[in-house]
Amino acid sequence: MAYVTREPGETCAEASTLSTTPVVDSTAVTPPSDPPGTREPPLFLATGRAMVTYDLQVRPGAGPSSLFSLGGDTVGVIVGGIVAVLVVALAWWLVSTYNRLVRLRNQTQASWAQIDVQLKRRHELIPNLVEGARGYAAHERATLEAVVAARGAAVGSDLGVMDKAAAEATLTTSLGALLALGESYPQLKADRHFATLQDELTTAEDKIAYARQFYNSAVQSYHSALESFPGNVVAGLGGAHTRREYFEAGDAPQDAVRVRFA
Question: Are 134 and 144 in contact (CB under 8 A)?
């Protein structure tokens, strides 16, 4: 294409006599060839002597894709931070719940140990009680042997909680029959040593009742934690936490060992 230019003051006719050869300004720069699709349409600018064409090029990496890439990195950092916080929170939640279950389990074990201590104290008093009663009521052989047999069954170390409770209930019943002999034998009733043993036995029974109540309360708290969320989830993962048995007093009368000598 040829461009015809005219100087100020020239007529169109005069300008038409000029050469139709295009005049290109020396400042025009021919841009290097670029691959298809990387160049914008040419823009024509008019100067005093010629029409110069400039190409506007889009540099690779300077378009919207680079901005999107930058935004993606930022979003990735944010998402990664959120995931890390959630992982830490989940780990803290699991650890705190597990530790709470461990504390409750240890509390049940400690309370059971207190029951065991008081039961052993009672078991130690029984032989002296039997010997004291034998001196005044030797012909009450069945009663004395029942106490000795019940004590032997209760002392067994391989008993579970329920079996232990049943054995102790039987022992309590037999002790009640032993202490009731004091009403039939005035000399036994007046024996100071036997009266002292009875007082110690009564004190041991009171401590056993208190320890049993504390243990059953600890077991109840432990069971509540195991059965409610999130303890049931954590307990199911490890398998180290199981339900405990309650230590019931049994069907023996509670005042069986509280026979007092006047």
Answer: yes
- Side chain identity at 231, as an amino acid letter? G
Q: Is the pTM of this model over 0.85?
A: no
Domain range enclosing 39: 1-58
pLDDT value of position 19: 46
For residue 249, how many other CB atoms are within 10 A of its CB?
Answer: 16
Write the DSSP string, 232-250: HHHHHHH------------
Contact 38, 57 (CB under 8 A): yes
Summarize pLDDT for 81-133 with one digit per residue, the tens: 899 999 999 889 888 888 888 899 999 999 999 998 999 999 999 998 888 88
* pLDDT at position 161 over 80: yes
Same domain, 224 and 162: yes
Q: How far apart are alpha carbons 222 and 243 in whole angstroms? A: 8
43, 101: one domain: no
Q: Which H/E stretch holds residue 205? A: helix 192-227
Nearest alpha carbon to residue 256 among 153, 182, 180: 180
On whether the CB atoms of residues 129 and 197 are closer than 8 A, the answer is yes
